[in-house]
Queue: 2 jobs
Job 1
Amino acid sequence: MLVDSHCHVDFPELAGRIENVLGVMRANGVDYALCAAVTLERLPAMLDLVMKHAQFFASVGVHPDNSDGLEATVDGLLQLAKQPKVVAIGETGLDYSRLEGDLEWQRERFRIHIRAAIECGKPLIIHTREAAADTLKIMREEQAGKAGGVMHCFTETREIAEAALEMGFYISFSGIVTFKNAILIKEVARHVPIDRLLIETDAPYLAPVPYRGKTNEPGFVRHVAEGIAKLRGTELETLANATTQNFFRLFSHAQAGLP
């Protein structure tokens, strides 16, 4: 069994052909996928899709890139987190790669998500891009380790990974780890403890080799697993079993949604 710990099956590239997406998952031995929220506006449609299919779980939150639209509050996230099949808070975090100017609103949004996660007892899905120092700083200040969670689509250094691991977080790798020039990420993937390792697609983005440049989908997480297994000199089955166990340990509320 394999689990895609982070994707966006509600995005138009995938939602319009969901039966095909599910078929590719089955063909690749991918039993479950976590659909991560990015805005509150599209959340009702996302939750409706997740509720219709036993293979999907959901998170609730507002992505750091979204500067417009409905803003998250602690109370609002706590109410949303009560929805069936919601197993996490996020994706949240910091992203300084696309936005300029005073980004204090982004940091405050991140703090709100951490506080909600701690209060509701569900883990965080954290996104960080060109903002690792501030991300770790806020995680420490807000005691994010009380909620736990995952550093999703990890592209930072081994030192950043170790800092997150020290706070009790998991590290998740996407299809980027299969790219030929991803030397730094491959090195981190070799050294993350097997009991803290997750795999994901971030579909419809970042398709792994041999699908690089094409629309990604949850079924392709098998290629991420194969790539990491090869890097670590282990069998695919071993890697698959470990990452699946890790997923259900971290997202413990997902157990209630199992058939």
Job 2
Amino acid sequence: MTQDSAAVTITRRAPSRKRSSEEAKAAVTRRLSAPQKIWGDSFVRKLFVVVVLAAAWQAYGQILDNPLLFPTLSDTVRSFFASIADGVLLNRAWTSLRVLLIGYAVGIAIATTITVLAISTRLGSDFLEVVTAMFNPLPAIALLPLALIWFGLGTTSMVFVLLHSVIWVVALNMQSGFMSVSMTQRMVGRNYELTGLSYVGRILIPAAFPSILTGLKIGWAFAWRTLIAAELVFGVSSGQGGLGWYIFENRNVLDIPAVFAGLLTVTIIGLLVENFVFKLIERRTVRRWGMQA
């Protein structure tokens, strides 16, 4: 009688436990509302930040009411589209990007060569430590006078300055990534008898790619701001240039909305590169490989 009662009790309690677990699972996996889904998108949150900053810009410009000091966002946008319509702003932007891409690509190639030598030999490692300690703290803008003396006016001088902005930060992050590769991954390469460039390309670079990507992002940011600053000097000297020269010449004629339109173009290009180019690389590499959440 007791055993039968116990069996009945167990049989009757089992469905309640099953229901409670299903209810708990349903509570955990409940569907999000439409506003929660929208706010969960990082692009929407970033867009919200941009809208808030734009509203603050417009409000401050209207309160100040002095276009020579701080034009409103609406005045800047009108000047921005007017410069695009006549082709001046697009031409200056392409001039800057063309020089930047040359310097950036050459800088990455040199940084990669130096870093591979540094991880291959003790002398190479000592060389990288010494030159980065010497040149990395040196502002790139300080090399402008030397660039003018050595290379004269033109693209070569600009590229020389950009190389200084890119090489050391990329090399440092690349070396840090290579040094952090685990011994297990290194042993895999040795088991497959990989040596030289094949070992670097198949083992070290994929394993260290998060650090390498960080170096590429920082190198891009350094190169972009160095280029604009350099163009302010080279443009004045040579009468030609990109966005930096566009900003300078409009400042000379006190067209401040056009100056802000140039600055806005610099910001937009930076946002596009960071949130589309590098994000795409990140999704196709480190996130796909499970190296980043």
